[in-house]
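Predict the 3D structure for this chain.
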Amino acid sequence: MNQKVSENFIVLALNPRSGNYMIFGNYLNFGFLGAVMMDLSLGGRISLEGKMMHANPSKGITGMPVHDRMYAQLLKSSSPRRVSVLIRRLSFNAGWYLREMRKLLVANGTLRKERKRFLFIPYSLHFVSDINRREKLALRLKEILLYNKLPDEEEIMLLGLVYACRLHRALSDDWEERRNTRKALVKYMKESPVASGINQAVREIQVAISASIAASVAATSGSH
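Done. Predicted structure below.
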C-alpha cells in the first residue's frame, strides 16, 4: 500500500513560496483525513460504498503510523458508518495526523523544514523539496480537467479532494486560468463517468466541512 493521495494532497496544499498551507481550518483538516481514507480504500483496508464506509479487518497494518492509526480507529466500528460522521470524529486528532505526515515527508525528503522565529517565538515552515514535482502534479491535474486526459484512480480521488476543499487555486497562479480550472473541475465532478465512483465520498467530506462550519458559526453567534 502507498500513501500517494495523502502525500500529493500535502504537496499541492503547501504554498511553494511561503511554506504555509493554501487552505486552512476544516478544509485542510477534513481534506487531509479524507486523503488518508482514500489511501486506505486503494489499499483494500476500507470499502467506500456510496455514503458509507466499512473497514476490512482481514488486512494487516500498513507500517505507516498515520494510516495505521486511522485504520485502527475505523476498525472499532463493527458496522458501516457514514463517511461524514467518521471524518468529524477523526477531526479531533487532525493536528496529530498532519504533524506525523509532515514528519514522515521531511524524513523521506519530500518536504524541507525551516525553523523561524518571530519576537522570540519559534515556528516552522514546510516547503516541497522538489518544486518541479509540485508543478508537474498541478499541470497533470489541469490536463485532465482542461484537455480531457484520462486519469488514474489516485488522480480522480485527488481531484475530488481539490473540489471538496476548494484547493483549485493551488493549480495555477493565473487568475483567468484558475477560474477556468474551477469551472472545469465543477463540471468534471458532476458529469464525468470516471468521477462518479467517488462522488458520494467527496460529497460526504463536503457535508462534514459544511456541518462543522455551521456549528462554528452557531457557537460564535450564541456567544454574543
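The chain is about 60% helix and 10% strand.
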